């Protein structure tokens, strides 16, 4: 047995059974040791004559105090993520989880690999026992990495880890033309409303949109292309004062009320499944997938971004592997159809309103989502330039940024110029109303 001294050192107990006290550092006898007399003097006769009383045996020493349980051993090396993954997981949890996670030091962060048929890219992240929660934040989360995809699930959700495995559905992705079908559009609106109603254990500050655009913009301003065509395309884009245009967009959206909700942020046809056998069902035939960009964000961005997706077909087989038609942007009637079904999903909050009140809310949302549609163009335009530099996927990213296709920056800048005029109030079909 080792005895831990108060000065932090460790040693075997001395033969005298002495422990270092926590006071002034003087030696104190161990229990049951220092009170005994010398054995030889106990055996000496006291007086001659007469029977002597038997020697009293010393009381048995008290049982040793129970030792505190040892700390749990660290997970085996093969159950620990490599340092870079651990660092990224810590930063993600600190940024996206509220409460005690926000002030957590990296040395307090617990992470281990979850095994058992899922993937080596599934981790359990947890607070140490010494850190108390502040609100309703979870103490443990599951963090799953799919390349760049981050997906967190609270460990106290219903069902076991085994039940949280990915379900496989017989399904197909929607085509662009289907987005405008009234029944499809209505169900997408309902699904999005349900998504927006989720309460996720993430940081609820809407930092994602402009924080990500600022990061992309910094990369764009430093990017260097080797091929002459891309150099020319980038030069044409950089003739716009991108930092100034971003500030103009920020100023516009700061003056545009839009609630912060948990957003999908990439609700395009490729991320919506039509479930097999339910094609003719009135409802519950669709499923949203791919939550790579999901975060707390402005409601207007999620809906406005979806409206922009009506214009783009990514199933084109020739370069640049997409087609764009700005006339496919939803009409006011189509937008109101989507918005009314979205609002109807919040039954207790919307259905009890008068028709006049409903019309006012719908008109306000038209302005909201079409202004945020401009942010969709700007966001994905910057993203496209970054992807053109780093992605190995064969796709016309620079075309999307510079030629007015998906995420076309030129679709955004003219609208921002109009929006700087206080008198601007006319709809624009290419995404964005002022």
UniProtKB/TrEMBL annotation:
Bias category Low complexity: which stretches?
Answer: 22-32
Instruction: Quote the Pfam families the UniProt record gives.
Output: Choline_kinase
- What's any GO biological process attached to this entry? phosphatidylethanolamine biosynthetic process
Top-rank lineage group of the source organism: Eukaryota
| A cellular-component GO term for this protein | cytoplasm
Q: Which InterPro entries match?
A: Kinase-like_dom_sf (IPR011009)
Named from the GO MF annotations, one term is: choline kinase activity
Composition-biased stretches, type Pro residues, lie in: 51-78
The portions of this protein that span the membrane are none
Region Disordered: start-end pairs: 22-84
Query: Keywords on this record?
Result: Acetylation, ATP-binding, Kinase, Lipid biosynthesis, Lipid metabolism, Nucleotide-binding, Phospholipid biosynthesis, Phospholipid metabolism, Transferase
Which reaction is this enzyme known to catalyze? choline + ATP = phosphocholine + ADP + H(+); ethanolamine + ATP = phosphoethanolamine + ADP + H(+)
Which EC numbers characterise this protein's activity in its record? 2.7.1.32, 2.7.1.82
Q: Which PANTHER family match?
A: CHOLINE KINASE ALPHA, CHOLINE/ETHANOALAMINE KINASE
As for family, the record states: Belongs to the choline/ethanolamine kinase family.
Name-wise, this protein is Ethanolamine kinase
| Organism expressing this protein natively | Panthera pardus (Leopard)
Which gene name does the record give? CHKA
């Amino acid at each position: 047995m080792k005895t831990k001294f108060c000065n932090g050192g460790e040693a075997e107990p001395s033969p005298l059974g002495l422990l270092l006290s926590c006071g002034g550092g003087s030696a104190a006898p161990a229990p049951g040791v220092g009170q005994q007399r010398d054995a030889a003097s106990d055996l000496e006769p006291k007086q001659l004559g007469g029977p002597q009383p038997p020697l009293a045996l010393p009381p048995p020493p008290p049982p040793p105090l129970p030792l505190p349980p040892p700390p749990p051993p660290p997970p085996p090396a093969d159950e620990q993520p490599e340092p870079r993954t651990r660092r990224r997981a810590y930063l993600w949890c600190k940024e996206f989880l509220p409460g005690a996670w926000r002030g957590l030091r990296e040395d307090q962060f617990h992470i281990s690999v979850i095994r058992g048929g899922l993937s080596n890219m599934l981790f359990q992240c947890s607070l140490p026992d010494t850190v108390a929660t502040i609100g309703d934040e979870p103490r443990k989360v599951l963090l799953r990495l799919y390349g760049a995809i981050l997906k967190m699930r609270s460990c106290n959700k219903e069902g076991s880890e085994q039940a949280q495995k990915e379900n496989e559905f017989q399904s197909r992705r929607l085509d662009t033309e289907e987005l405008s079908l009234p029944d499809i559009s209505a169900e997408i609106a309902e699904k999005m409303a349900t998504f927006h109603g989720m309460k996720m254990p993430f940081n609820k500050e809407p930092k994602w949109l402009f924080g990500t655009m600022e990061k992309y913009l910094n990369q764009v301003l430093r990017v260097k292309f080797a091929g002459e065509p891309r150099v020319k395309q980038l030069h044409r884009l950089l003739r716009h004062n991108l930092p100034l245009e971003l500030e103009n967009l920020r100023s516009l959206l700061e003056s545009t009320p839009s609630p912060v909700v948990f957003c999908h942020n990439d609700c395009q046809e490729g991320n919506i499944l039509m479930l097999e056998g339910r094609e003719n069902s009135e409802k519950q035939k669709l499923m949203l997938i791919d939550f790579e960009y999901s975060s707390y964000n402005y409601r207007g961005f999620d809906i406005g971004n979806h409206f922009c997706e009506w214009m783009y077909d990514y199933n084109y087989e020739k370069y640049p592997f997409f087609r764009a038609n700005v006339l496919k942007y939803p009409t006011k009637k189509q937008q109101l159809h989507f918005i009314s079904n979205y609002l109807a999903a919040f039954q207790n909050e919307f259905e009890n309103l008068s028709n006049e009140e409903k019309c006012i809310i719908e008109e306000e949302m038209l302005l909201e989502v079409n202004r945020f549609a401009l942010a969709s163009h700007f966001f994905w335009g910057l993203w496209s330039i970054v992807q053109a530099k780093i992605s190995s996927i064969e796709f016309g990213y620079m075309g999307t940024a510079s030629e007015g296709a998906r995420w076309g920056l030129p679709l955004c800048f003219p609208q921002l110029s109009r929006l700087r005029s206080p008198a601007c109030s006319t709809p624009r079909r290419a995404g964005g109303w002022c």
